TrEMBL record:
Protein name: Thiol-disulfide isomerase/thioredoxin
Species for this entry: Nocardioides marmoribigeumensis
Subcellular location(s) of the protein: Cell envelope
PROSITE patterns: PROKAR_LIPOPROTEIN, THIOREDOXIN_2
SUPFAM superfamilies the UniProt entry points to: Thioredoxin-like
Domain named Thioredoxin: residues: 47-194
Keywords: Cytochrome c-type biogenesis, Disulfide bond, Isomerase, Redox-active center, Signal, Signal-anchor, Transmembrane
Amino acid sequence: MRRVLAAVLPVLAVLALSACDRASITPPPVETRVEVDTPALRTLKAQARIAPCPRATGSSDLPGEQLACLGGGRAVDLSSVAGPAVVPLWASWCVRCRKELPIYQRLFAEAGDRVAVLGVDYQDTQPDAAIGLLRKARARFPQVADPGGVLADTYRVRGLPGVVWVREDGSATFDNSRIDTYADLVRLVSDRLGVDIATPAAG
């Protein structure tokens, strides 16, 4: 009996390891389990006065991924987002994001006609909490949802907050710039995008 067990146990161990490997390689996609457009979320979005997702008609190096509009609305093909644009990545679980969201809102309110602002609720499984945070921060710029983290492979996102800078020629880069004040954001927009929003637009 002991000889039989000694022969069988290694085989069972290999089968168990193979099963674990298959499970780790092909996990169930998160995005299929997270609903970001429901009647309840649409109500929350309306109460938070979040702007509708844009009808993007440009071209950029952003990945050709269609992301759902957070809280309902038209989906956005990221590769159609024209520059210059600022695309902050955030989530309801990101403590620092709570400070930065109002700063991006100010950019949207004061210079949205010169630099597009589109938020990405990234790897967030609680869209209701995300909209609640936007309402508390009074951040009303358009938002898409990436609960499955499809941007991770393109930009090797390792932590939040982060931001994708889309230049006028469509080229895009990601970084984890620290933004403490609106002046920081104005300076970064000038450095990364070549847009001086500190100077009023010629009109």
